[in-house]
Amino acid sequence: MSHSLWLIVPAAGQGKRMGADKPKQYLSLGEKPILAHTLSRLHQAFPTAHLVLCLDSDDHWFKPEWVPFSQWQRVAGGAERMDSVLNALHAIKVPENAMVMVHDVARPCITSSDLWALYDAAQQHPSGALLAMPVADTMKRANAEQLSAATEPRDRLWHALTPQAFRYALLRRALEYAVANHCMVTDEASAVEALGQAPKLVSGRRDNLKITHPDDLALAAAIMASQVAQSSESERSC
Ligand SMILES: Nc1ccn([C@@H]2O[C@H](COP(=O)(O)OP(=O)(O)OP(=O)(O)O)[C@@H](O)[C@H]2O)c(=O)n1
Ligand SMILES: C[C@](O)(CO)[C@H](O)COP(=O)(O)O
What we know:
This protein has a 7-stranded mixed β-sheet, with helices on both faces. It has a two-stranded antiparallel sheet with strand order 2-3. The model has no long low-confidence stretch (mean pLDDT 96). It has helices at residues 34-45, 81-91, 112-124, 168-180, 188-194, 215-236; strands spanning 5-10, 28-29, 32-33, 50-55, 72-76, 99-102, 129-134, 139-142, 148-152, 158-167, 200-203.
């Protein structure tokens, strides 16, 4: 399935909200760094995919031994996430209709079942697809004093997750359009939407956490431990 799949992993962020002494992707989660966990999960699902890893040019923490893929390349990150992803697209030579899947390095709890569901949806939808989660709470709009000024209707509101997957030509056109129009997009789907297209929302697991703040580390460790326990439980019952 995955021989024609290109995985782009933006990993050039500084992790400012984490406030650690190194970028958050190099913080340990159990026996290895977050980056190694994320790449390992992607490899479990798509062992023959080609990986493009976006790293900051000044990155001196990265170790190639954390990459389990046989075909991979490193590209320089950009000023924003969207610039890092566009650098990756510019660095690879692939057919226009090749499938490209972008996944945050900061989401190590991604599961094979979600990855495969997204891949299938992106194959079927010409505008691509993204993992997402319907909003479950009542949504408040704050005023400047952080008072609850209004309640927003939450019907049809979703949280965008990653991965997000698109045909190469569409994603490249979308991100080039966003850059040319000085439009700061925080995910790939926003860039595709700006072209007037509507990617498919694929309902993903709620535990696909983006490690952002210090508390998230313990939460991610607990999620991963519970996922491993569940998968050995289901292997035993087979
Ligand atoms: N110039 C950038 C900025 C972000 N990222 C990547 O985009 C993903 C999502 O970004 P986020 O969680 O915001 O990470 P950081 O930018 O590292 O965090 P912060 O905003 O707290 O600095 C991460 O995998 C991050 O490494 C990137 O490749 N290039
Ligand atoms: C792409 C993303 O993970 C979707 O939720 C998210 O937008 C990236 O994080 P950021 O904090 O907006 O950079």
